[in-house]
Automatic annotation (TrEMBL):
Provenance organism: Candidatus Propionivibrio aalborgensis
Sequence positions that bind substrate: 135, 309
Function: Catalyzes the interconversion of L-alanine and D-alanine. May also act on other amino acids.
Domain of life: Bacteria
InterPro entries tied to this protein: Ala_racemase, Ala_racemase/Decarboxylase_C, Ala_racemase_C, Ala_racemase_N, Ala_racemase_pyridoxalP-BS, PLP-binding_barrel
GO cellular component labels: cytosol
Record protein name field: Alanine racemase
Family assignment from sequence similarity: Belongs to the alanine racemase family.
GO biological processes: D-alanine biosynthetic process
Isomerase as UniProt keyword: yes
Amino acid sequence: MSRPIEARIDLAALRHNYLIAKSHAALQGRPAKAWAVVKADAYGHGLMRAAKALDGVADGFALLDLADAVALRDSGFRQPILLLEGLFEPDEVTVCAEYGLIPVVHRIEQLQMIRAAALPLRLPIYLKLNTGMNRLGFTLEQLPAVRRELAVSGAIGAVTLMTHFAEADGGRGIDFQLERFETMRQGWPDTSPVEISLANSAAILRYPQTAHDWVRPGIMLYGGCPFAESDAASFNLKPVMTLHSRILAVQEIKPGERVGYGGVFEATRPTRVGIIACGYADGYPRHAPGGTPILVAGQRTETLGRVSMDMLACDLTELPDAGVDSPVVLWGEGLPADEVAAAAGTISYELFCALARRVPVVEV
Ligand SMILES: *Cc1c(COP(=O)(O)O)cnc(C)c1O
């Protein structure tokens, strides 16, 4: 038998979660379209797999890499495709035109690249406004130069105004960003109506009034909850990735014996230790401390000591029926990735994205 670790990807759950995003985005009575955000190999779930699962369901796909976008087109996907970081090189402009890709434009040089390409058609763009995230996009002060460039360019088709929220999941909320967005949008000439795209998962769930024309759900598609204080199930989101493995050895240790590198865990009672075929080289976070929740044979227990490259240990003392070959769930069905992530001081996004290549993936 091969090493028992595998990631199971529930494609029906992915479709279900996409429709949950759409239903929240329609709470204001007007349906919004939704980009399925499939960047980072669909948050570690596999770009092509996710795209196939969402084909006929998703209104469009949003990602970063031009090569990935071209691969989707070459595989026959006809949905709109949005390039979230836009163009990096001038020669990418013609690829966008040829393959029907919509670039985000966040620097004036990108508009100039599009003009210089002298395309036979006008390229639709997403104009990114910096309303306070301060990563990408134009400020209010830069907008007049953008509009001058648009006016002389003749190379730009439909413009969608977008921004990205820094704290839709947090205490500061989105009001300050919405105010800045509104000021910037008002400067837009009435003669050229624009569509609007603001909301990520957190905003879709918490501020459905921000849905407008297009929303951009990412983590919620994969069943992750964008909020630390609630859980995915409370939004009826289903886990898509479940990381399974098995117990490959059991150690019975006496009080005072230690487990694993650094001897970080020391037994204070007779302890049954389960050794699991999963380590940080599989994508399990090395910084997950002892005490991180884990499921063995459907029952909750906790990890012991340090995570090694290929193995980690868990406590079987209270699970007398569990032993070698018992099934283990590291995260997913029955154990939310958000909970494991929180114990490890990170977020489910990072767990999903870190799933290692060596872990076989099966679709369910
Ligand atoms: C990644 C990303 C999203 C999706 O964010 P989630 O928090 O995963 O929903 C939306 N918009 C942009 C611009 C992004 O980069």
